[in-house]
Write a structure and sequence with these properties.
This protein has helices at residues 37-43, 69-82, 96-107, 127-144, 148-158, 161-166, 168-179, 183-195, 225-232, 250-254, 256-271; strands at 2-5, 12-17, 22-26, 48-52, 89-94, 112-118, 211-216, 238-243. It is α/β, with parallel strands linked by helices and 272 residues long. It has a single domain, classed as Rossmann fold. The chain has an eight-stranded mixed sheet, sandwiched between helices.
């Protein structure tokens, strides 16, 4: 069942399906919950899956003000309350979704039973990343919108050529969220979530929930397996894992069966 749920950041589009232990799936910047389609299919029954479109993404309403990752964590808590979910959830976040999960696990620990991040850098943007990649992307999008000269390199960075070739239909469906987004809403999201992204390093030692940080082996966007290993070394109950892919979202398309298997094994261990 899908619905728009009121929050302090506007109404968020939420899909709530299945029964069993609750898992929240939260997508990356630029895309929406459609990016999880192959993983959801591979997971199969036995879980209550809650998929949320971020503010200014997908079918969620644009927020009428600037916001932070902390604001989004609070909005997610409002969604869970609205759905009557009071027990801790298993959180699976891709890039941006991982940022929100980290904040929730550190500041609202009772909400999170376990935490999985996929392609989620914990450091803030470097000076070089900000001015040579991100600012030009935001300005180009502000002027041109989802022009192919922007969409193709963005898709290559997020998904990678291998994933686009292996899953062309899912790759197109995933990037359609960016192509179809409201331009002012996406500019605000890019500014709030990307250009103003804070470092989350200080939060990691505060997270007691079992945590798995998954990194793609050929991610060109500044988050590699060695970064994940360094991050989990600061956590009381964290570990890292490497999977195939050349972008934050790539593993969801290239290895959905493998991701589902990893999740099921991790959840079983976390419950032990």
């Amino acid at each position: 069942m899908s619905s728009l749920i009121p929050t302090s950041l506007g109404r968020l589009f939420v899909t709530d399906t299945g029964s069993g232990p609750v898992t929240v799936l939260f997508h990356s910047l630029f895309v929406d919950q459609v990016s999880w389609a192959l993983v959801v299919e591979s997971l199969g029954p036995g879980r209550r899956l809650v998929l949320i479109d971020a503010p200014n993404h997908g079918r969620s309403e644009p927020a009428d003000r600037d916001f932070t990752v902390d604001d989004c964590a609070d909005a997610v808590a409002e969604v869970l309350d609205h759905l009557g979910i009071t027990e801790p959830v298993d959180w699976v976040g891709n890039a941006l979704g991982g940022h929100i999960g980290i904040v929730l696990a550190a500041t609202q620990a009772a909400r999170i039973r376990s935490l999985v991040t996929i392609g989620t850098p914990v450091q803030s943007l470097s000076f070089r990343e900000r001015w040579t990649q991100c600012v030009p992307l935001v300005q180009g999008y502000r002027l041109l919108g989802p022009h192919r000269l922007l969409v193709k390199p963005l898709a290559d960075a997020l998904l990678g050529a291998d994933a686009i070739t292996a899953q062309p239909d899912q790759a197109k469906a995933t990037m359609d969220a960016f192509r179809n987004a409201s331009r002012p809403a996406m500019v605000r999201a890019m500014r709030c979530f990307m250009l103003r992204r804070p470092s989350l390093d200080d939060l990691l030692p505060m997270i007691t929930a079992p945590t798995l940080m998954i990194a793609a082996d050929r991610d060109p966007t500044g988050w590699v397996p060695a970064d994940a290993e360094r991050a989990v070394a600061t956590m009381p109950n964290g570990r890292a894992l490497t999977v195939k892919g050349a972008g934050h979202i790539a593993p969801l398309l290239l290895e959905p069966d493998r991701i589902a298997e990893i999740l099921q094994d991790f959840w079983a261990t976390a419950a032990a």
